[in-house]
TrEMBL record:
Membrane topology of the entry: Multi-pass membrane protein
Subcellular location per the Swiss-Prot or TrEMBL entry: Cell membrane
Keyword field: Cell inner membrane, Cell membrane, Membrane, Transmembrane, Transmembrane helix, Transport
Main location as per UniProt: membrane
Family matches, as Pfam families: BPD_transp_2
Name of this chain's protein: Erythritol ABC transporter membrane protein
GO cellular component: plasma membrane
Keyword Membrane (UniProt): yes
Length: 350
Protein backbone atom coordinates (compact mmCIF):
# COMPACT_ATOMS: atom_id res chain seq x y z
CA UNK A 1 0.00 0.00 0.00
CA UNK A 2 1.57 3.22 -1.09
CA UNK A 3 0.78 6.68 0.12
CA UNK A 4 1.02 9.78 -2.00
CA UNK A 5 0.98 13.35 -0.75
CA UNK A 6 -0.61 16.07 -2.74
CA UNK A 7 0.88 19.51 -2.55
CA UNK A 8 -1.54 22.36 -2.17
CA UNK A 9 -0.78 24.71 -5.09
CA UNK A 10 -2.23 27.64 -3.16
CA UNK A 11 -0.04 27.12 -0.09
CA UNK A 12 3.06 28.78 -1.57
CA UNK A 13 0.95 31.63 -2.93
CA UNK A 14 -0.65 32.19 0.47
CA UNK A 15 2.76 32.23 2.17
CA UNK A 16 4.06 34.71 -0.39
CA UNK A 17 1.02 36.91 0.09
CA UNK A 18 1.45 36.78 3.85
CA UNK A 19 5.11 37.78 3.50
CA UNK A 20 4.20 40.70 1.24
CA UNK A 21 1.59 41.92 3.72
CA UNK A 22 4.16 41.78 6.52
CA UNK A 23 6.88 43.44 4.43
CA UNK A 24 6.99 46.61 6.54
CA UNK A 25 7.57 44.71 9.76
CA UNK A 26 10.21 42.56 8.06
CA UNK A 27 11.93 45.69 6.72
CA UNK A 28 11.90 47.21 10.22
CA UNK A 29 13.59 44.14 11.70
CA UNK A 30 16.21 44.07 8.94
CA UNK A 31 17.22 47.76 9.14
CA UNK A 32 17.26 47.66 12.94
CA UNK A 33 19.42 44.55 13.00
CA UNK A 34 21.81 45.91 10.37
CA UNK A 35 22.43 49.29 12.01
CA UNK A 36 22.70 47.67 15.45
CA UNK A 37 25.92 46.06 14.20
CA UNK A 38 27.08 48.54 11.55
CA UNK A 39 26.50 51.92 13.24
CA UNK A 40 28.41 52.82 16.42
CA UNK A 41 26.28 53.79 19.43
CA UNK A 42 23.10 52.97 17.50
CA UNK A 43 21.63 51.11 20.49
CA UNK A 44 22.37 53.88 22.99
CA UNK A 45 19.48 55.44 24.93
CA UNK A 46 20.29 58.92 23.63
CA UNK A 47 20.13 57.72 20.04
CA UNK A 48 16.85 55.88 20.69
CA UNK A 49 15.30 59.10 22.01
CA UNK A 50 16.63 61.05 19.03
CA UNK A 51 15.27 58.52 16.53
CA UNK A 52 11.87 58.50 18.24
CA UNK A 53 11.64 62.29 17.87
CA UNK A 54 12.59 62.12 14.20
CA UNK A 55 10.10 59.30 13.64
CA UNK A 56 7.35 61.28 15.37
CA UNK A 57 7.79 64.25 13.04
CA UNK A 58 7.54 62.04 9.96
CA UNK A 59 4.74 59.91 11.44
CA UNK A 60 2.43 62.90 11.95
CA UNK A 61 2.72 63.82 8.28
CA UNK A 62 2.51 60.19 7.17
CA UNK A 63 -0.74 59.62 9.09
CA UNK A 64 -2.38 62.53 7.28
CA UNK A 65 -0.86 61.40 3.99
CA UNK A 66 -2.26 57.89 4.51
CA UNK A 67 -5.84 59.14 4.60
CA UNK A 68 -5.23 61.25 1.50
CA UNK A 69 -3.65 58.40 -0.48
CA UNK A 70 -6.40 55.96 0.56
CA UNK A 71 -8.91 58.24 -1.20
CA UNK A 72 -6.74 58.11 -4.32
CA UNK A 73 -5.19 61.54 -3.84
CA UNK A 74 -1.82 63.02 -2.89
CA UNK A 75 -0.75 66.00 -0.80
CA UNK A 76 2.53 67.55 -1.90
CA UNK A 77 2.01 70.69 0.18
CA UNK A 78 2.56 69.27 3.68
CA UNK A 79 6.25 70.20 3.85
CA UNK A 80 5.52 73.80 2.92
CA UNK A 81 2.62 73.93 5.38
CA UNK A 82 5.10 72.83 8.08
CA UNK A 83 7.28 75.81 7.17
CA UNK A 84 4.34 78.24 7.04
CA UNK A 85 2.82 77.15 10.36
CA UNK A 86 6.23 77.16 12.00
CA UNK A 87 6.68 80.79 10.95
CA UNK A 88 3.19 81.72 12.13
CA UNK A 89 3.88 80.11 15.50
CA UNK A 90 7.14 82.04 15.78
CA UNK A 91 5.47 85.31 14.84
CA UNK A 92 2.70 84.84 17.39
CA UNK A 93 5.16 84.01 20.17
CA UNK A 94 7.30 87.06 19.42
CA UNK A 95 4.76 89.65 18.35
CA UNK A 96 1.20 88.50 18.85
CA UNK A 97 -1.22 90.22 16.49
CA UNK A 98 -1.10 93.98 15.92
CA UNK A 99 -4.48 95.30 14.73
CA UNK A 100 -2.91 98.70 14.02
CA UNK A 101 -4.46 100.74 16.86
CA UNK A 102 -1.34 101.11 18.95
CA UNK A 103 -1.88 97.90 20.92
CA UNK A 104 -1.40 94.21 20.26
CA UNK A 105 -3.19 90.95 21.06
CA UNK A 106 -0.97 88.43 22.83
CA UNK A 107 -1.61 84.71 23.18
CA UNK A 108 -0.66 81.93 25.57
CA UNK A 109 0.80 78.63 24.39
CA UNK A 110 -2.53 76.81 24.08
CA UNK A 111 -4.07 79.65 22.08
CA UNK A 112 -1.06 79.71 19.76
CA UNK A 113 -1.44 75.96 19.19
CA UNK A 114 -5.12 76.35 18.33
CA UNK A 115 -4.53 79.25 15.94
CA UNK A 116 -1.68 77.48 14.15
CA UNK A 117 -3.70 74.27 13.82
CA UNK A 118 -6.59 76.28 12.35
CA UNK A 119 -4.20 77.67 9.74
CA UNK A 120 -3.17 74.13 8.78
CA UNK A 121 -6.81 73.05 8.54
CA UNK A 122 -7.59 76.13 6.43
CA UNK A 123 -4.81 75.31 3.96
CA UNK A 124 -6.18 71.77 3.74
CA UNK A 125 -9.65 73.20 3.17
CA UNK A 126 -8.35 75.25 0.23
CA UNK A 127 -6.75 72.10 -1.22
CA UNK A 128 -10.06 70.32 -0.79
CA UNK A 129 -11.99 73.10 -2.51
CA UNK A 130 -9.61 73.10 -5.47
CA UNK A 131 -9.91 69.32 -5.82
CA UNK A 132 -13.63 68.79 -5.15
CA UNK A 133 -15.27 71.96 -6.41
CA UNK A 134 -12.91 73.18 -9.12
CA UNK A 135 -11.94 69.64 -10.21
CA UNK A 136 -8.21 70.34 -10.14
CA UNK A 137 -6.10 67.17 -10.05
CA UNK A 138 -4.73 66.56 -6.51
CA UNK A 139 -1.15 66.53 -7.80
CA UNK A 140 -1.53 69.96 -9.42
CA UNK A 141 -3.61 71.53 -6.64
CA UNK A 142 -1.22 70.53 -3.86
CA UNK A 143 1.85 71.31 -5.96
CA UNK A 144 0.51 74.85 -6.39
CA UNK A 145 -0.16 75.06 -2.66
CA UNK A 146 3.41 73.90 -2.03
CA UNK A 147 4.69 77.06 -3.71
CA UNK A 148 2.03 79.32 -2.22
CA UNK A 149 2.65 78.20 1.36
CA UNK A 150 6.43 78.34 0.97
CA UNK A 151 6.21 81.81 -0.56
CA UNK A 152 3.94 83.02 2.23
CA UNK A 153 6.40 81.70 4.82
CA UNK A 154 9.24 83.61 3.15
CA UNK A 155 7.17 86.81 2.91
CA UNK A 156 6.41 86.77 6.64
CA UNK A 157 10.01 87.57 7.55
CA UNK A 158 11.64 88.45 4.25
CA UNK A 159 13.36 85.07 4.33
CA UNK A 160 14.81 85.62 7.80
CA UNK A 161 14.52 83.45 10.92
CA UNK A 162 12.31 84.25 13.91
CA UNK A 163 14.82 83.55 16.73
CA UNK A 164 14.63 83.20 20.52
CA UNK A 165 11.11 81.84 20.83
CA UNK A 166 11.29 81.76 24.62
CA UNK A 167 7.88 83.35 25.06
CA UNK A 168 6.75 85.79 27.72
CA UNK A 169 5.59 84.64 31.18
CA UNK A 170 3.32 87.68 31.36
CA UNK A 171 1.24 86.32 28.46
CA UNK A 172 1.62 82.61 29.26
CA UNK A 173 3.66 81.86 26.13
CA UNK A 174 6.83 80.95 28.05
CA UNK A 175 5.74 77.29 28.00
CA UNK A 176 5.94 77.11 24.19
CA UNK A 177 9.12 75.02 24.43
CA UNK A 178 7.20 72.22 26.18
CA UNK A 179 5.54 71.16 22.91
CA UNK A 180 8.80 69.98 21.37
CA UNK A 181 11.12 69.43 24.33
CA UNK A 182 8.85 68.69 27.30
CA UNK A 183 8.73 65.30 29.02
CA UNK A 184 5.75 63.68 30.76
CA UNK A 185 6.13 60.44 32.74
CA UNK A 186 9.57 59.98 31.20
CA UNK A 187 8.25 60.19 27.63
CA UNK A 188 8.61 63.27 25.37
CA UNK A 189 5.40 65.27 25.05
CA UNK A 190 5.58 65.05 21.25
CA UNK A 191 5.49 61.24 21.51
CA UNK A 192 2.34 61.45 23.64
CA UNK A 193 0.87 63.73 20.98
CA UNK A 194 1.74 61.18 18.31
CA UNK A 195 0.18 58.33 20.30
CA UNK A 196 -3.06 60.29 20.65
CA UNK A 197 -3.07 61.21 16.95
CA UNK A 198 -2.33 57.62 15.89
CA UNK A 199 -5.02 56.09 18.13
CA UNK A 200 -7.60 58.65 17.03
CA UNK A 201 -6.73 58.10 13.36
CA UNK A 202 -6.87 54.31 13.69
CA UNK A 203 -10.25 54.58 15.41
CA UNK A 204 -11.60 56.81 12.66
CA UNK A 205 -10.28 54.49 9.97
CA UNK A 206 -11.56 51.22 11.42
CA UNK A 207 -14.49 52.02 13.71
CA UNK A 208 -16.46 54.89 12.18
CA UNK A 209 -18.68 55.40 9.13
CA UNK A 210 -16.28 58.16 8.02
CA UNK A 211 -13.44 55.66 7.91
CA UNK A 212 -15.50 53.23 5.83
CA UNK A 213 -16.39 56.08 3.48
CA UNK A 214 -12.71 57.00 3.11
CA UNK A 215 -11.87 53.46 2.00
CA UNK A 216 -14.93 53.27 -0.23
CA UNK A 217 -14.00 56.53 -1.94
CA UNK A 218 -10.53 55.26 -2.76
CA UNK A 219 -11.70 51.79 -3.74
CA UNK A 220 -14.39 52.92 -6.18
CA UNK A 221 -15.31 56.59 -6.12
CA UNK A 222 -18.17 56.23 -8.57
CA UNK A 223 -19.62 53.24 -6.72
CA UNK A 224 -19.24 54.99 -3.38
CA UNK A 225 -21.08 58.04 -4.68
CA UNK A 226 -23.94 55.90 -6.00
CA UNK A 227 -24.09 54.17 -2.59
CA UNK A 228 -24.76 57.47 -0.85
CA UNK A 229 -21.23 58.35 0.26
CA UNK A 230 -20.66 62.11 0.21
CA UNK A 231 -17.40 61.82 -1.66
CA UNK A 232 -16.65 65.54 -1.73
CA UNK A 233 -17.02 65.85 2.04
CA UNK A 234 -14.79 62.84 2.55
CA UNK A 235 -12.08 64.38 0.38
CA UNK A 236 -12.43 67.71 2.16
CA UNK A 237 -11.91 65.96 5.48
CA UNK A 238 -8.74 64.08 4.48
CA UNK A 239 -7.02 67.18 3.11
CA UNK A 240 -8.01 69.25 6.15
CA UNK A 241 -6.76 66.47 8.42
CA UNK A 242 -3.48 66.35 6.50
CA UNK A 243 -3.14 70.11 6.99
CA UNK A 244 -3.76 69.68 10.73
CA UNK A 245 -0.99 67.08 11.00
CA UNK A 246 1.40 69.40 9.14
CA UNK A 247 0.54 72.26 11.51
CA UNK A 248 1.36 70.07 14.52
CA UNK A 249 4.76 69.32 13.01
CA UNK A 250 5.34 73.03 12.42
CA UNK A 251 4.59 73.70 16.10
CA UNK A 252 6.86 70.89 17.28
CA UNK A 253 9.84 71.97 15.20
CA UNK A 254 9.54 75.66 16.14
CA UNK A 255 9.28 74.63 19.79
CA UNK A 256 12.28 72.28 19.58
CA UNK A 257 14.55 74.81 17.93
CA UNK A 258 13.10 77.84 19.74
CA UNK A 259 13.30 79.40 16.30
CA UNK A 260 11.29 79.41 13.08
CA UNK A 261 12.79 79.41 9.60
CA UNK A 262 10.79 79.64 6.35
CA UNK A 263 12.74 76.75 4.79
CA UNK A 264 11.57 74.35 7.51
CA UNK A 265 9.88 71.25 6.12
CA UNK A 266 11.57 71.09 2.73
CA UNK A 267 11.13 67.60 1.21
CA UNK A 268 9.16 66.40 4.26
CA UNK A 269 6.37 65.36 1.91
CA UNK A 270 8.66 62.78 0.31
CA UNK A 271 9.39 61.08 3.64
CA UNK A 272 5.68 61.10 4.48
CA UNK A 273 4.78 59.46 1.16
CA UNK A 274 7.59 56.94 1.60
CA UNK A 275 6.40 55.98 5.09
CA UNK A 276 2.79 55.59 3.98
CA UNK A 277 3.62 53.52 0.89
CA UNK A 278 6.18 51.42 2.73
CA UNK A 279 3.52 50.81 5.38
CA UNK A 280 1.21 49.20 2.85
CA UNK A 281 -0.89 52.13 1.66
CA UNK A 282 -1.73 51.59 -1.99
CA UNK A 283 -1.00 54.51 -4.32
CA UNK A 284 -4.06 53.51 -6.35
CA UNK A 285 -6.26 54.08 -3.30
CA UNK A 286 -8.62 51.99 -1.23
CA UNK A 287 -6.04 50.26 0.98
CA UNK A 288 -3.87 51.31 3.90
CA UNK A 289 -3.51 51.05 7.67
CA UNK A 290 -2.35 53.54 10.28
CA UNK A 291 -0.29 50.92 12.11
CA UNK A 292 1.53 50.04 8.90
CA UNK A 293 2.23 53.73 8.32
CA UNK A 294 3.71 54.12 11.82
CA UNK A 295 5.98 51.12 11.22
CA UNK A 296 6.91 52.61 7.84
CA UNK A 297 7.84 55.87 9.57
CA UNK A 298 10.10 53.90 11.92
CA UNK A 299 11.78 52.22 8.94
CA UNK A 300 12.42 55.58 7.25
CA UNK A 301 13.58 57.16 10.53
CA UNK A 302 15.97 54.34 11.43
CA UNK A 303 17.26 54.23 7.87
CA UNK A 304 17.93 57.99 7.80
CA UNK A 305 19.57 58.19 11.22
CA UNK A 306 21.55 54.98 10.69
CA UNK A 307 22.99 56.23 7.41
CA UNK A 308 23.96 59.51 9.05
CA UNK A 309 25.70 57.69 11.92
CA UNK A 310 27.63 55.61 9.38
CA UNK A 311 28.77 58.79 7.64
CA UNK A 312 26.94 58.06 4.38
CA UNK A 313 26.75 61.08 2.06
CA UNK A 314 23.44 62.97 2.03
CA UNK A 315 23.40 62.48 -1.75
CA UNK A 316 23.47 58.71 -1.33
CA UNK A 317 20.80 59.00 1.34
CA UNK A 318 18.47 60.57 -1.22
CA UNK A 319 19.25 57.80 -3.70
CA UNK A 320 18.55 55.10 -1.12
CA UNK A 321 15.25 56.70 -0.05
CA UNK A 322 14.21 56.92 -3.69
CA UNK A 323 14.98 53.25 -4.17
CA UNK A 324 12.95 52.39 -1.06
CA UNK A 325 9.92 54.27 -2.43
CA UNK A 326 10.17 52.59 -5.84
CA UNK A 327 10.63 49.16 -4.25
CA UNK A 328 7.62 49.73 -1.98
CA UNK A 329 5.40 50.62 -4.95
CA UNK A 330 6.62 47.64 -6.98
CA UNK A 331 5.94 45.27 -4.07
CA UNK A 332 2.50 46.83 -3.54
CA UNK A 333 1.61 46.25 -7.18
CA UNK A 334 2.85 42.66 -6.93
CA UNK A 335 0.67 42.13 -3.88
CA UNK A 336 -2.37 43.53 -5.72
CA UNK A 337 -1.80 41.19 -8.67
CA UNK A 338 -1.41 38.14 -6.44
CA UNK A 339 -4.54 39.03 -4.46
CA UNK A 340 -6.48 39.41 -7.71
CA UNK A 341 -5.31 35.98 -8.89
CA UNK A 342 -6.24 34.37 -5.57
CA UNK A 343 -9.68 35.96 -5.72
CA UNK A 344 -10.21 34.68 -9.28
CA UNK A 345 -9.04 31.21 -8.23
CA UNK A 346 -11.53 31.16 -5.36
CA UNK A 347 -14.35 32.27 -7.67
CA UNK A 348 -13.42 29.59 -10.20
CA UNK A 349 -13.31 26.96 -7.44
CA UNK A 350 -16.69 28.02 -6.15
Amino acid sequence: MSMTTQRNPNASVNWLLLLLKARTFVALILVFAYFSFAAPNFLSVANAVLISKHVAINAFLAIGMTFVIITGGIDLSVGSVVGLTSMIAGYLVLNGIDPGFGWSIQFNTLEIMVLVCLVGVFVGWINGILITKLKVAPFIATLGMLYIARGAALLMSGGRTFPNLNGNPEYGSDTFHVIGTGVFLGVPVMIWMLIIAALASAYIARRTPLGRHIYATGGNERGASLSGVRVQRVKMFVYMFSGLMAALVGLIIASQLKAAHPATGEFFELNAIAAAVLGGTSMSGGRGRILGTIIGAFVIGILSDGLIMMGVSSFWQMVIKGLVIVAAVVIDQAQSRIQARVALAHEAGA
